[in-house]
């Protein structure tokens, strides 16, 4: 508990540092938002100056930061100039879409990487070992947007077995009543299996794209951790004691190998939150990543700052959760 409390306290200066960095990064972006949004040819120089004053861009950098900081402490992330909505509203509406995709992709990656890494460690040099190395190499070397475009070309364009990559839902179906914002979960709650199948099908290709990105570190770490544990002295002692192979592998070796694997899971999930920006753009997924990308293109400061703050908070929460799980697996890790 002490370690968790210390991590929570250490998150405060980290978040404040993120606030400073995000503010400065948005201010060094090339271009002038006032000129960008004043795209009407009839607008004069005075009109653009008035828009700059309205956006607060006429003030000094320190004054702009103070105004932003005060609004942030009041829970105000600003308004999106592109959509006209508050940034908080946009994040609340879009975050469930990103969370649904990321969690599904992460579970898919775990479901494949753990058995694959375990099998590769039990049979080093075998076909399954070479297969795990090949998947790891492909996952590291291929950017997510290239993987996504390749999957679309093969499964949608050539084979025709995947739905059109146009977002979360078939345009001819209606969304289920909103409870969590995750379409598959809300469809199950409403008992609408047709909507569930449609939403699930739309999610397969982008989830596989993100899962391939996560497979590489998870498979390699599982294999390496299991190889190290299987060669340890306590495993040799267990074998000499006549314990069954199954008990040695899952009760002794796998549990001790879980510590670095769980740590890698936390890091990988955090990386996936950043990787979904390009994946959402490729598959027209209306998540928070695509919203941030649009904000960069449109020089819309407030949504970009809100996105980076939310991602930083989620990153800290994921790291804290990882610490808790590691402590449960091995209480000595908290000392």
Topology overview:
Layout: H1 2-27, H2 33-37, H3 45-55, H4 61-73, H5 87-122, H6 127-141, H7 144-158, H8 183-190, H9 193-230, H10 233-240, H11 245-282, H12 288-297, H13 301-329
Helix pairs in contact: 1-13, 5-6, 5-9, 5-11, 5-13, 6-9, 7-9, 7-11, 8-9, 9-11, 10-11, 11-12, 11-13, 12-13
What's the SSE pattern? HHHHHHHHHHHHH
- Please tell me how large the radius of gyration is: 24 Å
DSSP summary, beta strand count: 0
Mean pLDDT: 82
How many DSSP H or I helices?
A: 13
Structural class by secondary-structure content: mainly alpha
The separation of the N and C termini measures 11 Å
Main β-sheet description: none
Strand content: under 5%
Name the overall outline.
globular
Low-confidence segments, given as residue ranges, are none
- The level of helicity is over 70%
Structural commentary:
The chain has 335 residues and is mostly helical. Helix content is 75%, strand content 0%. It is built from 13 helices and no strands. It has helices at residues 2-27, 33-37, 45-55, 61-73, 87-122, 127-141, 144-158, 183-190, 193-230, 233-240, 245-282, 288-297, 301-329. α5 (87-122) packs antiparallel against α6. The chain starts with a helix and ends in a 6-residue tail after the last helix. 32% of the residues are buried. The model has no long low-confidence stretch (mean pLDDT 82).
